[in-house]
């Protein structure tokens, strides 16, 4: 962001993204039953000599409290970043992380499974035909993306609204 917008606007934009992410997380947390902590309702059995560990139990309770007050989102954002060039199936990653981050994994499942476009990919190439030719199906993803962008720009330039079949 700093290279694109300069340092001041980059900070503002990152704060905007984080604020939006936190708001979305809070919405999911409100609607999620899995975000509630698991609390044991059975009383501890006490006997003679159990007070030996009272100081330790008090200490461990104090140490874990700040961790519990931080959200799953905060804990996830504090984790070290993964390697940029590693192969990663994002949905599989979040499925595997569902025990650590139950609310975040639900968020990821919902957000990452949204289709990029509601228009069939075949109709992106022409207004008339609905098929992709063998030459077009061999295009690299970056080329397809460039063609779709070019088509959008041309439509905007000439004020053409796409025809959607019912």
UniProtKB/TrEMBL annotation:
It comes from Opuntia streptacantha. Residues 73-153 form the HAT C-terminal dimerisation domain. One of its GO terms (molecular function) is protein dimerization activity. It comes from the Eukaryota. PANTHER family: BED FINGER-RELATED, ZINC FINGER BED DOMAIN-CONTAINING PROTEIN RICESLEEPER 1-LIKE. This is HAT C-terminal dimerisation domain-containing protein.
